[in-house]
Design goal:
Elements (H helix, E strand, L loop, with lengths): L1 H16 L16 H16 L3
Length: 52
């Protein structure tokens, strides 16, 4: 529900600011886990960058 409401509000705002643009939002395949996976990959990679 949060995603749906957020997209609706963002589309309203963008249609007022940029009426000539067709704005599309899409939800990634990772869903709610995207932030945790992205953060984990940064931490994991930092271990290997330390020893370059």
């Amino acid at each position: 529900m949060f995603y749906k409401v957020s997209v609706e509000k963002a589309k309203e705002r963008y249609s007022k600011l940029f009426p000539h643009l067709d704005v599309t939002f899409s939800q990634g395949a990772l869903g709610e886990d995207a932030t945790a996976i992205g953060s984990g990959s940064v931490v994991f990679e930092s271990f290997f960058d330390k020893y370059k």
